[in-house]
Amino acid sequence: xxxxxxxxxxxxxxxxxxxxxxxxxxxxxxxxxxxxxxxxxxxxxxxxxxxxxxxxxxxxxxxxxxxxxxxxxxxxxxxxxxxxxxxxxxxxxxxxxxxxxxxxxxxxxxxxxxxxxxxxxxxxxxxxxxxxxxxxxxxxxxxxxxxxxxxxxxxxxxxxxxxxxxxxxxxxxxxxxxxxxxxxxxxxxxxxxxxxxxxxxxxxxxxxxxxxxxxxxxxxxxxxxxxxxxxxxxxxxxxxxxxxxxxxxxxxxxxxxxxxxxxxxxxxxxxxxxxxxxxxxxxxxxxxxxxxxxxxxxxxxxxxxxxxxxxxxxxxxxxxxxxxxxxxxxxxxxxxxxxxxxxxxxxxxxxxxxxxxxxxxxxxxxxxxxxxxxxxxxxxxxxxxxxxxxxxxxxxxxxxxxxxxxxxxxxxxxxxxxxxxxxxxxxxxxxxxxxxxxxxxxxxxxxxxxxxxxxxxxxxxxxxxxxxxxxxxxxxxxxxxxxxxxxxxxxxxxxxxxxxxxxxxxxxxxxxxxxxxxxxxxxxxxxxxxxxxxxxxxxxxxxxxxxxxxxxxxxxxxxxxxxxxxxxxxxxxxxxxxxxxxxxxxxxxxxxxxxxxxxxxxxxxxxxxxxxxxxxxxxxxxxxxxxxxxxxxxxxxxxxxxxxxxxxxxxxxxxxxxxxxxxxxxxxxxxxxxxxxxxxxxxxxxxxxxxxxxxxxxxxxxxxxxxxxxxxxxxxxxxxxxxxxxxxxxxxxxxxxxxxxxxxxxxxxxxxxxxxxxxxxxxxxxxxxxxxxxxxxxxxxxxxxxxxxxxxxxxxxxxxxxxxxxxxxxxxxxxxxxxxxx
Length: 822
Description:
Keywords: Signal. The chain has 822 residues and is mainly β. It folds into six domains: 14-26 and 311-399 and 698-727, ntegrin, alpha v. Chain A, domain 4 (Immunoglobulin-like), CATH 2.60.40.1530; 39-298, no CATH class; 417-497, Jelly Rolls (Sandwich); 520-585 and 593-597, no CATH class; 603-697, Sandwich (Jelly Rolls); 734-820, Immunoglobulin-like (Sandwich). Strands 3, 4, 5, 6, 8, 10, 14, 16, 17, 20, 21, 23 and 25 form a 13-stranded parallel β-sheet that branches. A six-stranded antiparallel β-sheet has the order 1-56-55-30-33-32, with no helix packed on it. It has a six-stranded antiparallel β-sheet with strand order 36-39-38-43-46-41. A hairpin with a 3-residue loop joins strand 51 (651-658) and strand 52.
């Protein structure tokens, strides 16, 4: 029986992806307020949306659009985006500096100064109408500022500090209106406690022409409060908005991360200090030397009346699968549903589905057409609230699951490498550093090493690492701050694994040309916790078939030091972190899960071979001021790809330096007593294992669809959705695709195979073989099988709509399938 995979709104099977980091949310049921689509209008989905000019001294994780001049030098943009290469993600209408654009394309005048790290290009025209956008934002800010308060503001304590506590009980919408006295308290540094349900829209209306927000933000209630950080704010509190309807200047002076979107369409917004902001900045002008993190307001939310302006269409798409785990050779039917969630008719609606590797096209429903692996469905106009669906039928490509080993001596070389950057820090300066592996290579490690502080102006312990973590498969970002009174020097580095092995090490019968792909889970394993003073630990676990690499952490403040980052040879899927905490802190820990089996090519895979070198060292009670160096060295046939360590109290890490064969750690101890520390190095052997026929690992296949319209679209950030199926391995290594095509002299059909070799093809009618032939199987691709037909066989087939096909490959089990005649 065929497996039908229908794209419906199934929470278990649908993964909706907005390409620029915008949220493609279901229309909410609002107990308070009214449901609105993209209340920010044109500004929806932009992490920075600025009408005029300003200055930026650090990265933005999302998309940015500036209507004036942007003074930035080497600014990284789009670290967390999933945009397509042609999507607009960087817009500067005035003069500009230089940018590293991680995803999407850019409009700048002149078209210069952009390093396109995600395959994008310069756009010919400005895609943003700033005048119209800010007219809408000003009206919205005024309207929300006049909304009736639904929550209470009271005096309280959060994290041991005096605070304003905002309490709201609605799961839909909570509105807080601060008094002039409340605003003055925040300006003086009073903390803010937010006690509202996660997922609710929360609007904080702040009065005054020149308000300042100081202190810190906390989430919770009663005596249980957690400091605001990425792990506690992103997603769950995407609907948090600070609204400044009367402001002409807004200053944020925070001791940690500042949570929520800033809506200040008439104001010059200045981030005087903050760990980073977590939300959108919608302002007349903007100045900040700190990061803006991706946490865009939901595309569907409960807001105060009235909702967004009428008369704009907004098309979105969903995609899903009725089974998440087909086997190779199963028929898969994707259903793509386009919906107009706006309030005006959308014209020229077109759904586009670029089929991924791992599936083979069979058919598509009208009005869809296919060309070069892309299915395009021009569905015409959609009225407000209307939907239409189309289907695309494919075959899941078989995964090699059985067969003899062909060349057991064959191995492949692997060549890890490192990249690094010097970091100079002025007194009091905080810097973000981004490093990237080449192409689609995989990050395995990334850290800082602190080298020096100008003599007499402080110690290396005054330089604090606040963050060091993977941001994508091949990128890393770290945040470091210099609290000394003099200049400090440090180095950031990453270690990268190749995306593919080198060619086979010996003659294998395949012209020595084949390589195997390395892979890691796209999603990090992560946990976020709040810690009090003392030593605390947290652990992460990767799934079976993987090992943990790229350990990372992100701290809400400088109140903690990472003194343990450890995995073990007995449990390579587990990574344990240890913090020495001197002041309450919220920490997010992350790790990437690297698959230990390569991709299957020519019907076989290889294993990555890892060793774990552990060394115990004695750190004297009075080390050098810049720490003592200790080396851990890999065996002769390995390279160091991840450093690990576990330090006792009193020993401070100043980082480490990868030399690939070895890792040099710098440890500091001024306790007066010698301490024993454990230093480790995970080493990857230079060669893979020998060939292993087949694989037990399933293969995830991600299929992404997009929708566009010729009419104005209210939100370009919700026009993409993905559905993932995980193809299971098994004994079947070949399958018949599509129909049996009958001609005058014979019949032909398309055959997929995961292994090389030959196959015998037979056609059966009423249990009798009416035709047979052979086909040369092409591993990983399709081939055409042909059989000759007698006159009697042709007459017999003419009375049928299906025929039973038997495919017997030289490797793998025999496949019998009823196939439609065409």
